[in-house]
Write a structure and sequence with these properties.
The complex is a heterodimer. Chain A is α/β, with parallel strands linked by helices. Chain A is built from twelve helices and nine strands. Chain A folds into two domains: 134 residues, Rossmann fold (3-Layer(aba) Sandwich), CATH 3.40.50.1370; 154 residues, Rossmann fold. In chain A, the strands form two sheets. In chain A, strands 7-6-5-8-9 form a five-stranded parallel beta sheet, with helices on one face. In chain A, helix 1 crosses helix 12, helix 5 packs across helix 6 and helix 5 packs across helix 12. The radius of gyration of chain A is 20 Å and the shape is globular. The two termini of chain A are 31 Å apart. By secondary structure, chain B is an alpha/beta fold. Chain B has one domain: Rossmann fold, CATH 3.40.50.2020. Helices cover 28% and strands 25% of the residues of chain B. Chain B is built from four helices and eight strands.
Protein backbone atom coordinates (compact mmCIF):
# COMPACT_ATOMS: atom_id res chain seq x y z
CA UNK A 1 0.00 0.00 0.00
CA UNK A 2 1.21 3.48 -0.77
CA UNK A 3 0.29 6.33 1.59
CA UNK A 4 -2.34 8.75 0.26
CA UNK A 5 -0.60 11.51 -1.62
CA UNK A 6 -0.33 14.86 0.14
CA UNK A 7 -1.97 17.76 -1.65
CA UNK A 8 -0.91 21.34 -0.91
CA UNK A 9 -4.39 22.84 -0.66
CA UNK A 10 -3.71 26.57 -1.14
CA UNK A 11 -3.70 28.74 -4.23
CA UNK A 12 -2.09 31.68 -2.46
CA UNK A 13 0.31 32.27 0.40
CA UNK A 14 -1.42 35.16 2.13
CA UNK A 15 -0.09 34.37 5.58
CA UNK A 16 0.88 31.58 7.96
CA UNK A 17 -2.46 31.78 9.76
CA UNK A 18 -4.41 29.81 7.09
CA UNK A 19 -1.81 27.02 6.88
CA UNK A 20 -2.10 23.71 8.71
CA UNK A 21 0.93 22.19 10.46
CA UNK A 22 1.09 19.69 7.59
CA UNK A 23 1.17 22.49 4.98
CA UNK A 24 4.01 24.20 6.85
CA UNK A 25 5.95 20.96 7.15
CA UNK A 26 5.41 20.28 3.43
CA UNK A 27 6.98 23.65 2.53
CA UNK A 28 9.92 23.10 4.89
CA UNK A 29 10.51 19.55 3.57
CA UNK A 30 10.27 20.81 0.01
CA UNK A 31 12.85 23.52 0.77
CA UNK A 32 15.48 20.87 1.57
CA UNK A 33 15.45 19.80 -2.07
CA UNK A 34 15.79 23.40 -3.19
CA UNK A 35 18.64 24.03 -0.76
CA UNK A 36 20.50 21.26 -2.55
CA UNK A 37 19.94 23.13 -5.84
CA UNK A 38 21.28 26.36 -4.28
CA UNK A 39 24.39 24.56 -2.94
CA UNK A 40 25.39 23.05 -6.28
CA UNK A 41 28.92 23.89 -7.32
CA UNK A 42 27.99 24.81 -10.88
CA UNK A 43 24.45 25.10 -12.24
CA UNK A 44 22.12 26.42 -9.54
CA UNK A 45 19.16 26.74 -11.89
CA UNK A 46 16.38 24.21 -12.49
CA UNK A 47 13.67 24.37 -15.17
CA UNK A 48 10.74 23.94 -12.76
CA UNK A 49 8.97 27.27 -13.52
CA UNK A 50 10.07 27.63 -17.12
CA UNK A 51 7.65 29.74 -19.19
CA UNK A 52 5.87 31.03 -16.07
CA UNK A 53 5.53 34.79 -15.65
CA UNK A 54 6.15 36.16 -12.16
CA UNK A 55 5.42 39.79 -11.28
CA UNK A 56 7.20 41.28 -8.28
CA UNK A 57 4.89 44.04 -7.12
CA UNK A 58 6.43 46.09 -4.33
CA UNK A 59 4.41 48.98 -2.91
CA UNK A 60 6.84 49.30 0.00
CA UNK A 61 10.60 49.47 -0.03
CA UNK A 62 12.42 46.23 0.34
CA UNK A 63 15.85 45.24 -0.76
CA UNK A 64 16.64 41.89 0.75
CA UNK A 65 13.20 40.30 0.50
CA UNK A 66 12.83 41.42 -3.10
CA UNK A 67 16.30 40.26 -4.03
CA UNK A 68 15.73 36.94 -2.33
CA UNK A 69 12.47 36.40 -4.22
CA UNK A 70 14.11 37.43 -7.46
CA UNK A 71 16.98 34.99 -6.98
CA UNK A 72 14.47 32.25 -6.11
CA UNK A 73 12.49 33.01 -9.28
CA UNK A 74 15.62 33.04 -11.45
CA UNK A 75 16.79 29.74 -10.01
CA UNK A 76 13.42 28.26 -11.01
CA UNK A 77 13.81 29.63 -14.57
CA UNK A 78 10.72 31.87 -14.32
CA UNK A 79 10.21 34.97 -16.46
CA UNK A 80 10.29 38.03 -14.19
CA UNK A 81 8.77 41.50 -14.27
CA UNK A 82 9.59 43.96 -11.49
CA UNK A 83 6.92 46.51 -10.78
CA UNK A 84 7.98 49.13 -8.26
CA UNK A 85 4.91 51.10 -7.39
CA UNK A 86 5.11 54.60 -6.08
CA UNK A 87 3.81 54.44 -2.54
CA UNK A 88 2.00 57.76 -2.57
CA UNK A 89 -0.04 57.30 -5.73
CA UNK A 90 -1.13 53.70 -5.20
CA UNK A 91 -2.13 53.09 -1.62
CA UNK A 92 -5.92 53.13 -1.78
CA UNK A 93 -8.09 50.08 -2.32
CA UNK A 94 -9.67 51.21 -5.52
CA UNK A 95 -6.42 51.98 -7.29
CA UNK A 96 -5.09 48.65 -6.08
CA UNK A 97 -7.97 46.87 -7.82
CA UNK A 98 -7.26 48.87 -10.96
CA UNK A 99 -3.62 47.86 -10.76
CA UNK A 100 -4.69 44.27 -10.27
CA UNK A 101 -7.01 44.31 -13.26
CA UNK A 102 -4.31 45.85 -15.43
CA UNK A 103 -1.87 43.19 -14.35
CA UNK A 104 -4.45 40.46 -14.80
CA UNK A 105 -4.86 41.44 -18.42
CA UNK A 106 -1.19 40.58 -18.94
CA UNK A 107 -1.86 37.04 -17.62
CA UNK A 108 0.85 36.61 -15.02
CA UNK A 109 1.10 33.19 -13.33
CA UNK A 110 2.30 34.44 -9.99
CA UNK A 111 2.37 37.76 -8.15
CA UNK A 112 4.74 38.44 -5.28
CA UNK A 113 3.47 41.52 -3.48
CA UNK A 114 4.52 43.74 -0.62
CA UNK A 115 1.91 46.26 0.45
CA UNK A 116 1.43 48.41 3.56
CA UNK A 117 -2.22 47.47 3.99
CA UNK A 118 -3.11 44.22 5.74
CA UNK A 119 -5.66 42.48 3.56
CA UNK A 120 -4.38 43.98 0.31
CA UNK A 121 -3.30 40.52 -0.77
CA UNK A 122 -6.67 38.93 -0.03
CA UNK A 123 -8.30 41.70 -2.09
CA UNK A 124 -5.95 41.03 -4.99
CA UNK A 125 -6.56 37.29 -4.70
CA UNK A 126 -10.28 37.83 -5.21
CA UNK A 127 -9.73 39.73 -8.44
CA UNK A 128 -7.00 37.71 -10.12
CA UNK A 129 -6.39 34.26 -11.43
CA UNK A 130 -2.68 34.40 -10.60
CA UNK A 131 -1.29 32.88 -7.43
CA UNK A 132 -0.47 35.56 -4.86
CA UNK A 133 2.45 35.45 -2.46
CA UNK A 134 2.50 37.88 0.45
CA UNK A 135 5.97 39.40 0.75
CA UNK A 136 4.91 41.50 3.73
CA UNK A 137 1.76 43.49 4.48
CA UNK A 138 2.11 46.31 6.97
CA UNK A 139 2.45 44.98 10.52
CA UNK A 140 0.27 41.97 9.70
CA UNK A 141 2.19 39.01 8.20
CA UNK A 142 5.44 38.19 6.42
CA UNK A 143 4.98 34.46 5.87
CA UNK A 144 8.16 33.65 3.93
CA UNK A 145 10.30 35.23 6.65
CA UNK A 146 8.65 33.02 9.29
CA UNK A 147 9.14 29.99 7.05
CA UNK A 148 12.84 30.69 6.57
CA UNK A 149 13.25 31.28 10.32
CA UNK A 150 11.55 27.93 10.97
CA UNK A 151 13.68 26.24 8.32
CA UNK A 152 16.84 27.62 9.95
CA UNK A 153 15.74 26.50 13.42
CA UNK A 154 14.66 23.07 12.22
CA UNK A 155 17.95 22.56 10.43
CA UNK A 156 19.88 23.58 13.54
CA UNK A 157 17.86 21.58 16.11
CA UNK A 158 16.23 18.88 13.95
CA UNK A 159 12.76 19.83 15.21
CA UNK A 160 10.53 22.72 16.25
CA UNK A 161 8.25 20.93 18.69
CA UNK A 162 9.20 21.66 22.29
CA UNK A 163 11.89 24.20 21.33
CA UNK A 164 12.03 27.19 23.63
CA UNK A 165 12.26 30.39 21.68
CA UNK A 166 12.37 33.97 22.96
CA UNK A 167 11.34 36.70 20.54
CA UNK A 168 12.79 39.95 21.82
CA UNK A 169 12.18 43.60 21.07
CA UNK A 170 9.77 45.61 18.99
CA UNK A 171 6.80 43.21 19.00
CA UNK A 172 4.37 46.05 18.33
CA UNK A 173 5.64 47.02 14.88
CA UNK A 174 6.77 43.65 13.63
CA UNK A 175 4.94 41.65 10.99
CA UNK A 176 7.62 39.00 11.25
CA UNK A 177 6.53 38.30 14.80
CA UNK A 178 2.92 37.65 13.85
CA UNK A 179 3.83 35.14 11.16
CA UNK A 180 6.32 33.56 13.53
CA UNK A 181 3.77 33.28 16.33
CA UNK A 182 1.36 31.49 14.02
CA UNK A 183 4.03 29.18 12.72
CA UNK A 184 5.85 28.36 15.95
CA UNK A 185 2.67 27.77 17.96
CA UNK A 186 1.17 25.59 15.20
CA UNK A 187 4.29 23.43 15.25
CA UNK A 188 4.48 23.18 19.05
CA UNK A 189 7.39 25.48 19.98
CA UNK A 190 7.28 27.25 23.36
CA UNK A 191 7.46 30.96 22.65
CA UNK A 192 8.18 33.81 25.07
CA UNK A 193 7.81 37.40 23.91
CA UNK A 194 10.23 39.78 25.61
CA UNK A 195 10.22 43.57 25.51
CA UNK A 196 9.19 46.72 27.33
CA UNK A 197 5.42 46.83 28.05
CA UNK A 198 5.04 49.67 25.56
CA UNK A 199 6.31 47.50 22.67
CA UNK A 200 4.11 44.47 23.43
CA UNK A 201 0.58 45.16 22.28
CA UNK A 202 -2.33 43.99 24.44
CA UNK A 203 -4.38 41.02 23.35
CA UNK A 204 -1.48 38.87 22.15
CA UNK A 205 -2.46 36.05 24.49
CA UNK A 206 -6.07 36.18 23.31
CA UNK A 207 -4.87 35.17 19.85
CA UNK A 208 -1.99 32.93 20.97
CA UNK A 209 -2.89 31.62 24.45
CA UNK A 210 0.20 29.42 24.75
CA UNK A 211 2.62 32.33 24.36
CA UNK A 212 4.35 33.69 27.47
CA UNK A 213 5.21 37.37 27.93
CA UNK A 214 8.17 38.72 29.86
CA UNK A 215 9.60 42.18 30.47
CA UNK A 216 12.83 40.80 31.92
CA UNK A 217 15.29 39.64 29.27
CA UNK A 218 17.99 38.44 31.66
CA UNK A 219 15.54 36.24 33.57
CA UNK A 220 14.24 34.72 30.33
CA UNK A 221 17.50 33.95 28.54
CA UNK A 222 18.80 30.92 30.55
CA UNK A 223 15.92 28.63 29.46
CA UNK A 224 15.96 29.40 25.75
CA UNK A 225 17.15 27.20 22.87
CA UNK A 226 16.96 30.14 20.50
CA UNK A 227 16.69 33.90 20.77
CA UNK A 228 15.16 35.84 17.92
CA UNK A 229 16.05 39.52 18.11
CA UNK A 230 13.75 41.95 16.33
CA UNK A 231 14.79 45.18 14.69
CA UNK A 232 13.68 48.39 16.42
CA UNK A 233 11.60 49.88 13.63
CA UNK A 234 12.37 53.55 14.15
CA UNK A 235 10.88 54.38 10.75
CA UNK A 236 7.57 52.96 12.03
CA UNK A 237 7.69 55.04 15.19
CA UNK A 238 9.34 52.71 17.69
CA UNK A 239 11.06 55.78 19.12
CA UNK A 240 7.76 57.06 20.55
CA UNK A 241 7.43 53.92 22.72
CA UNK A 242 10.89 53.90 24.33
CA UNK A 243 12.67 56.58 26.38
CA UNK A 244 15.87 56.43 24.28
CA UNK A 245 17.93 53.96 22.29
CA UNK A 246 20.47 53.84 25.09
CA UNK A 247 17.83 53.08 27.69
CA UNK A 248 16.34 50.38 25.46
CA UNK A 249 19.75 48.80 24.92
CA UNK A 250 20.44 48.80 28.65
CA UNK A 251 17.55 46.40 29.24
CA UNK A 252 16.89 44.59 25.98
CA UNK A 253 20.11 44.50 23.96
CA UNK A 254 21.65 41.09 23.32
CA UNK A 255 25.32 41.56 24.13
CA UNK A 256 28.31 39.46 25.21
CA UNK A 257 27.46 39.72 28.92
CA UNK A 258 23.91 38.49 28.35
CA UNK A 259 25.14 35.69 26.07
CA UNK A 260 26.86 34.27 29.16
CA UNK A 261 23.40 33.79 30.70
CA UNK A 262 22.29 31.66 27.74
CA UNK A 263 22.80 27.97 27.05
CA UNK A 264 26.22 27.57 25.42
CA UNK A 265 24.68 26.37 22.13
CA UNK A 266 21.84 28.91 21.99
CA UNK A 267 20.92 30.00 18.46
CA UNK A 268 20.71 33.73 17.76
CA UNK A 269 18.44 34.90 14.94
CA UNK A 270 17.55 38.32 13.54
CA UNK A 271 15.37 39.01 10.50
CA UNK A 272 17.56 41.98 9.50
CA UNK A 273 18.47 44.62 8.75
CA UNK A 274 20.33 44.93 12.05
CA UNK A 275 20.63 48.10 14.10
CA UNK A 276 24.11 47.26 15.38
CA UNK A 277 24.59 48.52 18.91
CA UNK A 278 20.86 48.92 19.54
CA UNK A 279 19.05 45.59 19.82
CA UNK A 280 22.18 43.49 19.29
CA UNK A 281 25.92 44.12 19.47
CA UNK A 282 28.25 43.31 16.58
CA UNK A 283 30.09 40.84 18.79
CA UNK A 284 26.93 38.73 19.12
CA UNK A 285 25.57 39.29 15.61
CA UNK A 286 28.88 38.13 14.11
CA UNK A 287 29.60 35.57 16.84
CA UNK A 288 29.59 31.76 16.80
CA UNK A 289 25.97 31.42 17.99
CA UNK A 290 24.59 33.67 15.26
CA UNK A 291 22.52 32.10 12.47
CA UNK A 292 21.71 35.49 10.94
CA UNK A 293 23.48 34.96 7.62
CA UNK A 294 22.16 31.40 7.40
CA UNK A 295 18.68 32.88 7.63
CA UNK A 296 19.44 34.99 4.56
CA UNK A 297 20.87 31.97 2.72
CA UNK A 298 17.80 29.86 3.54
CA UNK A 299 15.44 32.55 2.28
CA UNK A 300 16.09 31.54 -1.33
CA UNK A 301 15.31 27.78 -1.12
CA UNK A 302 12.30 28.43 1.12
CA UNK A 303 10.89 30.92 -1.39
CA UNK A 304 11.64 28.51 -4.23
CA UNK A 305 9.61 25.87 -2.37
CA UNK A 306 6.66 28.24 -1.94
CA UNK A 307 6.65 29.38 -5.57
CA UNK A 308 6.96 25.80 -6.81
CA UNK A 309 4.13 24.48 -4.64
CA UNK A 310 1.78 27.31 -5.61
CA UNK A 311 2.56 26.90 -9.30
CA UNK A 312 1.91 23.17 -9.25
CA UNK A 313 -1.54 22.88 -7.75
CA UNK A 314 -3.46 19.68 -8.24
CA UNK A 315 -6.92 18.56 -7.31
CA UNK A 316 -9.40 20.55 -5.26
CA UNK A 317 -8.01 23.90 -4.11
CA UNK A 318 -9.17 26.29 -1.44
CA UNK A 319 -8.09 29.96 -1.45
CA UNK B 1 -4.76 3.46 -6.66
CA UNK B 2 -2.98 0.60 -4.91
CA UNK B 3 -4.62 -2.72 -5.60
CA UNK B 4 -4.09 -5.53 -3.11
CA UNK B 5 -5.26 -8.14 -5.63
CA UNK B 6 -2.91 -7.02 -8.39
CA UNK B 7 -1.34 -9.98 -10.21
CA UNK B 8 2.25 -10.53 -9.15
CA UNK B 9 4.67 -10.56 -12.09
CA UNK B 10 7.79 -11.12 -9.98
CA UNK B 11 7.94 -12.14 -6.33
CA UNK B 12 10.74 -11.20 -3.94
CA UNK B 13 12.93 -14.15 -4.92
CA UNK B 14 12.52 -13.46 -8.63
CA UNK B 15 13.32 -9.77 -8.09
CA UNK B 16 16.54 -10.88 -6.41
CA UNK B 17 17.38 -13.19 -9.35
CA UNK B 18 16.75 -10.42 -11.88
CA UNK B 19 18.91 -7.99 -9.89
CA UNK B 20 21.71 -10.59 -9.74
CA UNK B 21 21.49 -10.96 -13.51
CA UNK B 22 21.55 -7.18 -14.06
CA UNK B 23 24.59 -7.07 -11.82
CA UNK B 24 26.41 -9.78 -13.81
CA UNK B 25 25.61 -7.95 -17.07
CA UNK B 26 27.00 -4.72 -15.67
CA UNK B 27 30.15 -6.54 -14.55
CA UNK B 28 30.48 -8.15 -17.99
CA UNK B 29 30.18 -4.74 -19.67
CA UNK B 30 32.47 -2.77 -17.36
CA UNK B 31 34.65 -5.29 -15.54
CA UNK B 32 37.27 -3.29 -13.75
CA UNK B 33 36.35 0.05 -15.23
CA UNK B 34 37.56 2.45 -12.53
CA UNK B 35 35.15 5.18 -13.56
CA UNK B 36 31.95 3.17 -12.94
CA UNK B 37 29.31 4.77 -10.68
CA UNK B 38 25.63 4.10 -10.00
CA UNK B 39 22.96 6.78 -9.83
CA UNK B 40 19.51 5.76 -8.57
CA UNK B 41 16.41 7.74 -9.49
CA UNK B 42 14.38 8.55 -6.38
CA UNK B 43 12.49 6.83 -4.87
CA UNK B 44 12.48 3.17 -5.85
CA UNK B 45 15.27 3.36 -8.40
CA UNK B 46 17.54 4.55 -5.60
CA UNK B 47 16.75 1.50 -3.46
CA UNK B 48 17.41 -0.83 -6.39
CA UNK B 49 20.69 1.01 -7.06
CA UNK B 50 21.70 0.52 -3.42
CA UNK B 51 21.20 -3.24 -3.77
CA UNK B 52 23.02 -3.39 -7.11
CA UNK B 53 25.88 -1.47 -5.58
CA UNK B 54 26.19 -4.01 -2.73
CA UNK B 55 26.10 -6.92 -5.20
CA UNK B 56 28.70 -5.26 -7.45
CA UNK B 57 30.98 -4.64 -4.49
CA UNK B 58 30.77 -8.33 -3.53
CA UNK B 59 31.82 -9.37 -7.02
CA UNK B 60 34.35 -6.64 -7.84
CA UNK B 61 35.77 -6.33 -4.31
CA UNK B 62 35.85 -2.57 -4.46
CA UNK B 63 33.67 0.39 -3.55
CA UNK B 64 31.21 1.43 -6.28
CA UNK B 65 30.22 5.12 -5.90
CA UNK B 66 26.46 5.56 -5.48
CA UNK B 67 24.35 8.68 -5.84
CA UNK B 68 20.69 9.71 -5.70
CA UNK B 69 18.94 11.72 -8.37
CA UNK B 70 15.67 13.61 -7.80
CA UNK B 71 14.05 14.54 -11.09
CA UNK B 72 10.91 16.32 -9.88
CA UNK B 73 12.09 19.76 -11.03
CA UNK B 74 12.88 18.47 -14.51
CA UNK B 75 9.64 16.61 -15.22
CA UNK B 76 7.45 17.58 -18.15
CA UNK B 77 4.31 16.02 -16.64
CA UNK B 78 3.99 17.91 -13.34
CA UNK B 79 0.43 18.86 -14.21
CA UNK B 80 -0.56 15.20 -14.47
CA UNK B 81 0.41 14.21 -10.94
CA UNK B 82 -2.37 13.42 -8.51
CA UNK B 83 -0.64 14.93 -5.45
CA UNK B 84 1.65 17.89 -4.89
CA UNK B 85 5.07 17.08 -6.35
CA UNK B 86 7.66 16.37 -3.67
CA UNK B 87 11.18 17.67 -4.22
CA UNK B 88 14.00 15.89 -2.42
CA UNK B 89 17.73 16.51 -2.58
CA UNK B 90 19.90 15.12 -5.34
CA UNK B 91 23.06 13.65 -3.82
CA UNK B 92 26.00 12.92 -6.08
CA UNK B 93 29.01 12.31 -3.82
CA UNK B 94 31.47 11.91 -6.71
CA UNK B 95 32.60 14.01 -9.65
CA UNK B 96 30.85 13.25 -12.92
CA UNK B 97 33.74 14.23 -15.15
CA UNK B 98 35.06 11.20 -17.07
CA UNK B 99 32.61 8.88 -15.25
CA UNK B 100 30.70 5.95 -16.65
CA UNK B 101 27.35 6.44 -14.95
CA UNK B 102 24.67 3.74 -14.80
CA UNK B 103 21.28 5.32 -14.17
CA UNK B 104 19.02 2.94 -12.26
CA UNK B 105 15.22 3.05 -12.24
CA UNK B 106 12.47 0.61 -11.35
CA UNK B 107 10.27 0.70 -14.48
CA UNK B 108 10.71 2.28 -17.89
CA UNK B 109 7.47 3.28 -19.63
CA UNK B 110 7.24 6.42 -21.81
CA UNK B 111 10.92 7.30 -21.39
CA UNK B 112 10.08 10.76 -20.06
CA UNK B 113 11.47 10.08 -16.60
CA UNK B 114 14.81 9.11 -18.12
CA UNK B 115 14.78 12.20 -20.34
CA UNK B 116 14.27 14.31 -17.20
CA UNK B 117 16.95 12.32 -15.36
CA UNK B 118 19.50 13.00 -18.08
CA UNK B 119 18.70 16.73 -18.00
CA UNK B 120 19.08 16.71 -14.22
CA UNK B 121 22.30 14.73 -14.38
CA UNK B 122 23.89 16.97 -17.00
CA UNK B 123 23.25 20.02 -14.79
CA UNK B 124 25.66 18.43 -12.31
CA UNK B 125 28.49 17.75 -14.70
CA UNK B 126 29.60 16.01 -17.87
CA UNK B 127 29.99 12.25 -17.50
CA UNK B 128 31.89 10.29 -20.12
CA UNK B 129 28.88 8.09 -20.81
CA UNK B 130 25.43 7.39 -19.36
CA UNK B 131 23.95 3.88 -19.36
CA UNK B 132 20.51 2.83 -18.22
CA UNK B 133 19.51 -0.15 -16.07
CA UNK B 134 15.87 -0.92 -15.18
CA UNK B 135 14.21 -3.76 -13.33
CA UNK B 136 11.22 -3.80 -15.71
CA UNK B 137 10.60 -2.52 -19.24
CA UNK B 138 6.85 -2.36 -19.77
CA UNK B 139 6.92 -0.93 -23.32
CA UNK B 140 4.90 2.14 -24.40
CA UNK B 141 7.82 4.42 -25.19
CA UNK B 142 7.10 8.00 -26.32
CA UNK B 143 10.76 9.02 -26.67
CA UNK B 144 13.69 7.32 -28.40
CA UNK B 145 15.22 6.03 -25.15
CA UNK B 146 16.02 2.35 -24.47
CA UNK B 147 17.58 0.58 -21.47
CA UNK B 148 21.06 -0.96 -21.80
CA UNK B 149 20.38 -3.44 -18.99
CA UNK B 150 16.93 -4.73 -18.11
CA UNK B 151 15.36 -7.36 -15.90
CA UNK B 152 11.82 -8.15 -17.00
CA UNK B 153 10.61 -7.26 -20.51
CA UNK B 154 6.86 -6.87 -20.95
CA UNK B 155 4.34 -5.45 -23.38
CA UNK B 156 1.61 -4.04 -21.16
CA UNK B 157 -1.55 -2.25 -22.38
CA UNK B 158 -1.38 1.51 -21.82
CA UNK B 159 -4.23 1.52 -19.28
CA UNK B 160 -2.48 -0.90 -16.92
CA UNK B 161 0.25 0.06 -14.49
CA UNK B 162 3.37 -1.93 -13.70
CA UNK B 163 4.32 -1.21 -10.14
CA UNK B 164 7.62 -2.16 -8.55
CA UNK B 165 7.53 -2.44 -4.78
CA UNK B 166 10.61 -2.45 -2.57
CA UNK B 167 11.01 -3.51 1.03
CA UNK B 168 12.42 -0.13 2.12
CA UNK B 169 9.32 1.83 1.02
CA UNK B 170 6.48 -0.63 0.58
CA UNK B 171 7.42 -3.36 3.06
CA UNK B 172 7.56 -5.97 0.30
CA UNK B 173 9.65 -6.76 -2.80
CA UNK B 174 7.84 -7.54 -6.03
CA UNK B 175 6.59 -6.41 -9.42
CA UNK B 176 2.81 -6.12 -9.82
CA UNK B 177 0.39 -5.47 -12.64
CA UNK B 178 -2.19 -2.99 -11.38
CA UNK B 179 -5.74 -2.58 -12.64
CA UNK B 180 -7.31 -0.32 -15.19
CA UNK B 181 -7.59 3.18 -13.77
Amino acid sequence: MTAPRYLFPHRHLLGIQPLSPQDITAILDQARGFEEVCERPEIKIVPALRKRLVVNLFFENSTRTRNSFEIAEKRLSAEIINFDADTSSLSKGETLIDTALNLESMRPDLIVMRHAAPGAHALLARHMRANIVNAGDGAHEHPTQALLDAYTLRKRFGRLEGLRIAIVGDIRNSRVVRSNLWLLTKLGAEVTLVGPPTLIPEGIQETWPSVAISHDLEATLPDQDAVMMLRCQFERGTGAFIPSQGEYARFFQLNAARMKLCKPDVAVLHPGPINRGVEITSEVADGPNSLILQQVTHGVPVRMAVLFLLCNPHGEQVP
Amino acid sequence: MPDSHAPCLLDARQVEIHLQRLCREIVAAFGNNESLALLGIRTRGLHLAERLSTMLQDILRKEIPLGALDITLYRDDLSELTGSPIVRPTEIPFTLKDRTVVLVDDVIFTGRTIRAAMDALLDHGRPDRIWLAVLADRGGRQLPIQPDFMGLKLDVPLDRRVSVKVQEVDGVDGVFLEGRS
